[in-house]
Structures are given as C-alpha cells and as structure tokens.
Specification:
CATH architecture of the largest domain: Sandwich
Number of strands: 18
Largest sheet: 9 strands, mixed
Order of helices and strands: HEEEEEEEEEEEEEEEEEE
Radius of gyration: 31 Å
Low-confidence stretches: 1-18
C-alpha cells in the first residue's frame, strides 16, 4: 500500500505538459445474471504513457470484482488481469466500498512505458450479481497519466457499463382458440403466433395436451420476431359435444415459463335430411 500511495503522489505532483495524448476506453459489456469470472476490458488507442492513476466507481449490486483479481495485501493485480501492453507495469489496486457504491483506484508505473500503443491494456475480472435487466455505468471519477519524464499527459477516457441480460419472455396471440365443426369433420386450420418480449433468444417448444390437436412447427426461436404456428384439428372421431384442451408453450429459460393457449372445439351432430328423396 505504501508503494501505491507513492505512485499516486508522483502523479498528483506531476506538472501538466502536453506530450502526446492518451485515449482509454472501458468496455460496455453484457452478461447473464450470476455469471462469474468475466472480464471488463480496458483498451488504449494511439497512447503514450509510463504512469497512470484511474479511479472508477460503479454499483456493486450489479457486479463486483472477483476475489483474487488483485492481492488483498499488496494490492497488486493478478497475472490474468495483464496483457502484453501492461505486462511491464507494476499495477496496484485500492478498493473501497460505501453502501452500494464501490470505488476502484488503479495505479501503475513503468520505466519504459508504452508508445503509440493500441489494444487491450487491462482486464477487470468480475462476478455479475445483478438481476436480469439491471445495469450500472462504470464512471471515471479521475484519470491521470504521465510520460517517462513525469509530465502529465492530456487524456480522454470513455466510461463503460455492465448490462445484465434479461431472460426471454413468452408472448403469444391469440390468447385462446375456438373452433366448431359437424360430426365426422375437422374444423379449418388456425394460426397463432409466439414471440419473445424479453432479452436474449426464446427457444420454445409447442405441445398440445390432447390427441385431437397437432401443431406445426413444434418448436422455434425468437429474438423478438413473431413465429407463426399452424394448429390442425383431428376431430373426425369425436362425438357431438364440447371438448377442451390446451397448447403449452415452454422455454426453461423464460421468466414466465410455461404459457398456454386454451382450445375449445364444439362438435355438432351431422345434418339429417328430412323428407322425400
């Protein structure tokens, strides 16, 4: 920690002289709720510097850094956080938590630094703790960079974000199906639609609950597009009366799994001719 403070003090004391420029961007990433060990990339573009001190803030109910991403005693980042561009830097992290806000201070220095570099510089390892649909910006509270002479460099830093994927959600239309026919006949085919009103991809199956119904296709997928399903009736063996069944629409990953469409078929007696031929 004493070394961390030394790096930070050197950067704070550096005179501002424009020697080149630094462009840094934090990625905007999406991940599933409960995902563990993912990375938030920090990239540089056409950048020259030998020291840096960046302070980030974010909502820790959406994600938090992985234990072991940095050493809790020395603050030094782990090897899997580094890339070829940052391998020569001594990088340390200071993390503080206040309620649902985490402040992450990342400082590093190198005798040679990097020159006109573009590419992935550092990876922040995180566990996603937020519920589907939640998100948090990764804000840059401060960012300072210096060259090999200790002069402060003008920097542009783009903030990042973490978005937690929403689960798929089953929507269907119409909400029920009604058909009629005469005994010995089948009602005309009907059509219903299934689509995803949530996140990701809805991979659904369609299963009738009674033997006098069939559906085609029996499965499909939707990223928001509507998928048409044809309902065919097999009612020729049904006696006159009213019959009820349902069509089940399921996806184990959907937040409202399963959904159903009630189906009612009324079979009327055959017409009987009365009178002379």
């Amino acid at each position: 920690m004493r070394r961390f403070l030394m790096y930070a003090c050197l950067l704070l004391a550096a005179p501002f002289v424009c020697h080149g420029a630094v462009s840094v961007s934090l990625a905007r990433v999406t991940a599933d709720s409960g995902a563990r060990g993912g990375f938030i990339p920090i990239s540089v573009a056409d950048s020259t510097f030998s020291g840096f001190d960046i302070t980030l803030t974010y909502d820790n109910t959406v994600f938090e850094v992985v234990p072991g991403w940095y050493h809790p005693g020395t603050g030094e980042v782990s090897e899997n956080a580094r890339t070829p561009l940052s391998s020569q830097f001594v990088i340390r992290v200071q993390r503080t938590v206040s309620g649902r806000t985490t402040t992450l201070r990342i400082a590093g220095s190198s005798e040679r630094g990097i020159a006109d570099a573009t590419g992935l510089f550092l990876r922040i390892a995180v566990n996603v703790t937020g519920a589907p649909g939640e998100q948090t910006p990764i804000r840059v509270a401060s960012a300072k960079f210096v060259d090999t002479q200790g002069n402060q460099i003008q920097a542009t830093v783009s903030e990042g974000a973490v978005f937690v994927n929403r689960w798929p959600s089953i929507s269907r239309s119409p909400e029920n199906i009604t058909a009629v026919c005469r005994s010995g006949n089948n009602p005309p085919d009907q059509l219903f639609e299934v689509w995803n009103t949530g996140g990701g991809t809805l991979n659904f199956r369609v299963v009738p609950t009674v033997p006098w119904l069939t559906c085609s296709p029996a499965a499909g997928s939707s990223d928001g597009n509507r998928v048409g399903i044809t309902v065919q009736f097999r009612a020729t063996a049904l006696l006159p009366g009213t019959y009820t069944g349902a069509i089940l629409i399921s996806d184990a990953n959907a937040d409202n799994n399963p959904q159903e469409i009630p189906v009612t078929v009324t079979v009327y007696p055959r017409l009987t001719r009365i009178g002379p031929n």
